[in-house]
Amino acid sequence: MSTATVVGSGPNGLAAGVILASAGVQVTVLEAADEIGGGARSSEAIVPGLLHDHCSAVHPMAVGSRFMVEAELARYGLEWCHPEIDCAHPLDDGTAGVLYRSVTETAAGLGQDGDLWHLLFGRTSANFSKLADGMMQPILRVPRHPLAMARFGFPAPLPGSVVARLFRTEQTRALFGGIAAHAFRPLHYPMTSAIGIGIVTAGHHNGWVVAKGGSQAITNAMAAALTDRGGKIETGVRIDTASQLPTSDVTMFDLAPGAIASILGDRLPRRVARPFTRFRRGPGAYKVDFAIEGGVPWTNPKARKAGTVHVGGTYAEVAATERAIHAGTMPERPFVLVGQQYLADPQRSVGNVHPLWAYAHVPHGYTGDATEAIITQIERFAPGFRERIVGTAVRSTTAMAEYNSNYIGGDILTGSKDIRQLVFGPRATLAPYSVGVPGMYICSAATPPGPGAHGMCGYHAAKSALKYLDH
């Protein structure tokens, strides 16, 4: 029987393990922390019984991913919950850009931009089941449905600013800009529209869902699928050098490229070591969890029903904050993402006290305290918010890196998603999961298709490993 060692138990490491174990490989997952899951973890915080997601929280790209389908995670207890409204982007005048799962309902609420929204996302979201495989694989692969992918991908290379200018109302521009800002890139950069278009399209098909019982439920289902296939998981095992790696036929690294270069040292070919050690990191996330009595008193009533609220003001303001953090400057009014997962999954609350998930985009390695800036931004669109805070739990950029070693400087995307790294991953190659050492592969979110609890980086890396084992 072939053997595999997986270093790191984030969603991609576990996904790689499940795919390998499904093919009859004896898999052992090694995790440095005492708990598995990487960014897909949840726990009680602030108030006993109040359930907070640690990082990964909303999962439009995970539902229906090829890995999720093949692993049959529903058999292991994974359930998805839908909010009434997927996302709202409130403005100072009390209005908001509002995203529903339904393209038609979204378009109807966007006034004179409704027809254009339907043109951009109607057909592609209806065809998402055909598009998903192409979207969730390395870009330089031949898609199964090239015509559908061509229609979807036509505007993707454009800067987010170009697509935003197509819209005539501030509500629609802000809504699209806030979604495109998930890329942590200045919105005038090429391909920043790709992230926004991908998330919107997936969301219209799948919804901006959350996992019932917290994102930890995704990790638990993956772990159960792995052990059900004979795999093993060992926690508290840190790998710092190649000599600590067990002898295996294949080794999978759910780690950032720099960590792999440090572990393998001289074993890594120079053509790989150079880009791995020079891998570019992105801006940081500064996270604050809140316990809120009675929920958030958003001025816009739709925001009170939205699973996700983007707090950043107008499109121009969001664009300015993303330019600032990329330049290393902390904006006075940062872009803040707010998660109200309890609206879809009420079991996360305790009575009338609810868990609120929030993080601000900040410069890489930001050492200041962004807590007050986050509270002030939310208060701006929800007067009286401050008075409803029962307690807070803060995770700075430094604490992010301590929580998950892949999140260096608070970079929760595991690397800057510039054109080269978005297309190729850590290095320019048609084999993005290979580390240049026979039988060794990288499967973290640094590789295509990138961040999320979809497991597809691990899926593709494991498929590459199985081809190696078959030779």
Automatic annotation (TrEMBL):
Species lineage: Bacteria, Bacillati, Actinomycetota, Actinomycetes, Mycobacteriales
TM stretches of this protein: none
Protein name as annotated: Dehydrogenase
Origin superkingdom: Bacteria
Pfam families to which the protein is assigned, alphabetical: NAD_binding_8
Gene3D superfamilies linked to this entry: FAD/NAD(P)-binding domain (3.50.50.60)
UniProt signal peptide: none
UniProt cross-references to InterPro entries, sorted A to Z: FAD/NAD-bd_sf
